[in-house]
Amino acid sequence: MTSPFPEIVCTEDTLWGSPRVDGRRLAVGDVVSIVHDSLHHALDSHELTLSQIKQALSYCSMLQCQADNPLVFCHNCSLRSKQEGPLDTSDLEEVISGDSVFVKGENFMFFGSMEDLLEDYCGYDWWIIATDLLIDLRNELPDEPTLQPTP
After folding, report:
1. Is the Cβ–Cβ distance between 21 and 48 less than 8 Å?
2. How far apart are CA 139 and CA 54, in angstroms?
3. Among 24, 62, 73, 146, whose CB has the most other CB atoms within 10 angstroms?
4. Model pTM score
5. Rg (alpha carbons) of the chain, rounded to whole number
């Protein structure tokens, strides 16, 4: 049976097994995030095709990752924070320096407050955003052409 998402793969040796665009180190969640900012930015700056974008959005909106059971979910997805459990902040320190706020630890730095870090760690429900994007972009992301039988 042919996968409805041939351009989306999960391989242990790339991105820790997260669902990603085949041949790229770009997770499905990253694609949703980039397209959420700008479809044209995704096409131009990230050199994604309309097919890759549509497959990533569809894969995410259908929560296909749960069926595929990757080693880890996308790094910015709420499913991953649930998978990994609560963030251990015991060795982290929030530092305020002038107008800057950051959190630091051994081999770790986050630019923002501890509250921002915890919010970012919880991730986003990308499948909801992906569903909305598929609706909003339905004219820009046309259906794949179907092969017509030869007469």
Report:
1. yes
2. 12
3. 73
4. 0.82
5. 18
pLDDT digits over 63-121, tens only?
999 999 999 999 889 999 999 999 999 999 999 999 999 999 999 999 999 999 999 89
Could you give the 3-state DSSP secondary structure of residue 125?
coil
What is the DSSP secondary structure assignment for residue 27, as one 8-state letter?
Answer: B
Provide the residue type at 57 as one letter.
Answer: L
Q: What is the token pair recorded at 123?
A: 């991730």
- By C-alpha distance, which of 41, 14, 37 is closest to 27? 14
DSSP character at residue 47: -
Element (H, E) at 102: strand 100-105
Domain boundaries, the chain: 1-77+124-143, 83-123
